[in-house]
Amino acid sequence: MSIAVIAGLGNPGAEYARTRHNLGFWLVDALARDSGAVFRDEKRFQSAVARIETSGRTLWLFKPLTFMNESGSAVAPFLHFHKLPATALAVVHDDITLPLGRMKISVRGSAGGHNGIESIIAHLGEDFARVKLGIGSKAHPEMNLADHVLSRLTGEEETTLAARQPDFLAGLRVLIAEGSAAAMNKINGIKN
User: Fold this and answer.
1) Taking a C-beta distance cutoff of 8 angstroms, is the pair 4, 60 a contact?
2) Distances (CA, A) of 125 to 2, 115, 128
3) Is 102 helix (H, G, I), strand (E, B) or coil?
4) Where would I find the H helices in 37-154?
5) Which of 3, 34, 57, 62 could form a disulfide linkage to 7, CB 3.0–4.6 angstroms apart?
């Protein structure tokens, strides 16, 4: 099945807006702007939702407004309401194993320590696409992981991400138009 829902993960609230953990929100917001779509709050799904018509079909952009650790409790009811399987879902999220400015697409697998992905797996199983956006590893081994992912991006890092955003959007468009296998072949080998 083709991708019908792109869910960007993050934490709600202005205090989290420019943190590494909110790169999923950041990219889905950019796709909405680029497509002329506007998010609206959907209280019954604890989310903000935008709708795009592309290639003659509907694509939903989705941002859970639960906190990261409860992402699945927002995403799963939305998919169930629209009678969509997990294979119709792509989740955009931060990844500490990739350097900042890198995107990687995968399907299935473990949560890799990401609490938002773990929550979605608990509600839907593993059979969905993941769009991983690198945030780099911790600055120091003794640094708390939560402190790292919830830290604000530096000006230099924001500049790097702004420069990479068109490539990230192009990657999402390949995923939407051609599916996961084609997107993995085209995107995963690209370096910064």
Assistant:
1) yes
2) 17, 14, 8
3) coil
4) 72-81, 115-124, 145-149
5) 62
Q: Which two tokens stand for residue 41?
A: 């709050």
Q: Which CATH superfamily is domain 5-187 in?
A: Peptidyl-tRNA hydrolase (3.40.50.1470)
DSSP letter for 137, please. Answer: -
Q: Which of 21, 93, 114, 148 is catalytic?
A: 21
Express as a percent the part of the chain with pLDDT over 90: 74
From the number of C-beta atoms within 10 Å of its C-beta (0-12, 13-18, 19+), residue 50 rates as buried
- pLDDT for the residue 55: 72
Q: Is 80 considered catalytic here?
A: no
Give the whole-angstrom CA distance, residue 180 versus residue 3: 8
- Position 172 scores a pLDDT of 93
Rounded to 10°, the helix 155-178/23-35 angle is 60
Annotated domain spans of the chain: 5-187
Handedness of CA 130, 135, 140, 145 (dihedral sign): negative
Confidence at 191, pLDDT banded by 50, 70, 90: low
In contact, 46 and 64? CB cutoff 8 Å: yes
DSSP 187: H
With b for 16 or more beta-carbon neighbours within 10 A and e for fewer, the 6-15 pattern comes to: bbbbbbbeee
